[in-house]
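To close the chapter, one final illustration. This time we ask the reader to focus less on the individual chains and more on the assembly as a whole: which components sit near each other, and how the overall shape emerges from the parts.
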Amino acid sequence: MNKCKVLVVGWDAADWKAIDPLMDQGLMPNLERMVNSGVRGRMATLDPPLSPMLWTSIATGKRPYKHGILGFTEVGPDGKTVRPVTNVHRKVKAIWNILTQEGAKTNVVGWWPSHPAEPINGIMVSNFYQRANRPMNEPWVMRKGTVHPESMNAHFGALRIHPAELTAAHIAPFVPDFAKVDQDKEKSLENLARVIADCSTVQAAGTWILEHEPWDLACIYFDAIDHFAHGFMKYNPPRRDHIPEREYELYKGVMTAAYRFHDLMLGRLLELAGDDATVMLISDHGFHPDHLRPKSLPKEPAGPAREHSPFGIFCLKGPGIKKDALIHGASLLDITPTLLTLFDLPVARDMDGKPLLDVFEEPHELRVIDSWEDVEGECGMHPRDAGKEVLSEMDHESLEQLVELGYIDDPGKDPDKASMHTVRENRYYLAKAYIDGGKAREGRDLLRDLFNEAPDQTRYGTDLIRVLLGSLELSEARSTYVKVLAELEKAHEKRRAEQLAKPEGADIGSYLRDASTLGLESALFLAEGNTARALAILEQLEARPGMSEVVQLRKGNVLMKMDQWDSALNAFQKAMVHDPQNPRALHGAGVSEMKRGNAEAAIGYLHDALALRFDMPHIHYHLGEAYFRLQQYEEALQAFTVCLRMSPGIERARRRSAAILEILGRPEEAAELTSTAHVIPDEEVITIVSGLPRSGTSMMMQALVAGGAKPFTDEKRAPDESNPKGYLEHSAVKGLAKDGRFLALAKGHVVKVVAPLLPMLPPRFRYRVVFMDRDIHEVLGSQDQMLGRRSKKGPKEAFRMGLHDAYQKQLAKAETWQANHPNVEMIHVPYACVIADPLTEMRRVNELLGGKLDPDAMAAAVDPDLYRTRSSEPAN
Amino acid sequence: MDKRNKAAKHPEDVILHSPDGKVFDVPVEGSLSLLALGYKGLMAWRAKRIAAAKDMEGHFSK
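The assembled structure is written out below.
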């Protein structure tokens, strides 16, 4: 382990969009010095952008479904008490546990969530430390578990600042005209004082530790910017029409004062850390300071998170770190891998982030292990059943702040109801985390359950529709939309009746679909291939006051589908006027420009998009395409290489790279690139069973499933006389020609795709194809029998001779497709051989599929009695 | 950083110095700068308040 000192300072919700104008005015000199002597960049957040989940991801390098922290609250060990989220459900090691194992000294203050304090090698002061839960004239008891080691309880207790201790001198920099606030009626100054006292308490503990205790890593977390912003960002200049002038004049300086105060605190921390320390300043998400501030918030738990922007801040300075440099594409998942790299410790493969190697002046050698979870030794984590006693004493005040911030609904007095809501809400956040992490299927299943359980929570339904659209499960998306509409109408009619029941209540009229519902309907039509309807809805929406900017991104996407590149570009450009930092708008504009033949303009847009979201492989791919068109082959090769590194399944990028290497006179590298098929884990590969209709594909599906393969099927096609054991098909496959995105859900599964549809398979996935060969006369005969069985007119009228040639052409096409696609491995399995010697054939199939299936079970599933149409027999 | 204050355990033991080495006169009403200084600013401010309260007590007891 490298001996170094690293200080991590967390500023919840800090945003460069708010900071940069202040630095330009010289109002944040300490941060400005740090930026000038180090690297800075935006840091992409995760969805949902809820701080306890995010800060745990920052500290572990893992997504919420791995680390287990799923919301603001949790249910206590009695199964009824709702309490603020703690760390006892965290399932994985945080950076301070890893460093404890390595013998390093780590001190942590205020991290959310960090209660009860973990017994690490160092001091931990939990996030329940700073909150004053009693009036100043009453004893302010430290909760058990607030400090590790416990012997320092009294010491840190004395460093706490009660809000009532503050004076006008502390409030005036935030609200110069504070005397005009009627404190009997308005709680704003009280809230302000509480936030100032809380963060000053954290600063007091942090500075004491830095000055008096040894440390290798120190993590000090401030939640104040987020709390200031939820209360007062709406008053930040410029004033918007809906903000009353009086309140604006009173509170317009709060956010500037908040950032300046944090800069002062940072200055002190930098001074105490010393020049030899590496200092990292980060935020988990941003907070819109500008025209993107929402005018109103949805009345739902975590509704205020809509005020968050998707990019936090990242700043790093210290020995060996680049000076005055920018980095792109950082994610909060990268923080722990980067910290491990700073300490020269290995990064774990089970972490979802990557080390930010671009920050270093010299190239860094990266070490990797499978997981830190398997590393033995005392790491200072709580045992699995920890904290029951400690946590049962949590009082109601701890929840109050979350209620006041709007992050949770008041749990109320009915414990059963409160705990049920908490569990459900956390499942909802888990579903969103799954979707954000690319686990759409898990997210979809959870959302489906949630919407069934609580259909009045239409956000479950609308999120379900979005994920269903992504997987092209269109009929369910449509039926869910109908249910959502019915629920919205029901809720509206209830409100209407309540209004009318009031003495002077006016009729609020019938239900009208709001912008978000109409946007969803447009997306539904787009997915169904009805681009005209999709566009018409957006144009109708565009005409509504204030909606023009909001719909442009959607409109651009529809117009791209319609190949209307000029109009699409126009829409994306309008979307960028609204939000210049929207990576999807920039990406769309880049693709539109390329399609219009302006590759140079496309490159500009695509670079801007990557500066915001470096982690999106398709942007790299399109950048490569744009460079390729300009014959700038080195740049194109670089872009395709990055694309393939992120997403090895994008075979277009591989083919383009190989072609470029040929052009550049590097044929050996081209051959290597083409021949060395990327080794992809089985769960990333889609197994396809294909062949002509009635060539034994259902039989092979049944055999594979019997052998242990997972079928991708919606079971809509029931077994019948022609296929008494079932078809094992998925209806989405029929729509392959239009859109194959649903196949993302088929990874690790076996899917039946008839031969004519094979060339429609999207090239970005890896396929192993089991192709059933059957004598074409038998195929036709079997089809004839099948159709004949269905036809009331009998078999003779169902048979069509022209199919023979057509099928032969289709078989040839499938062969060509396989030959041209290095992402495809194929095995031909003669139907007759399967019937004659099933075990030998199934062993062969199992070999192609990685050898993990059970060939005996597969062979046993073959029923020779179903071989009813043989070529030696008359076809009909 | 004033090393003389490192061992201070009581608010009244903390003395703040300005960059030119002069003793800093802590305002009794406190300030954000003192809070930003961390535990040391807090202790110095509390010491000032204690001293001011004693003065006040003495004034009224006369």
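Chain A has 34 helices and 20 strands. Residues 474-501 of chain A form the longest helix (28 residues). With these observations in hand, you are ready for the problems at the end of the chapter.
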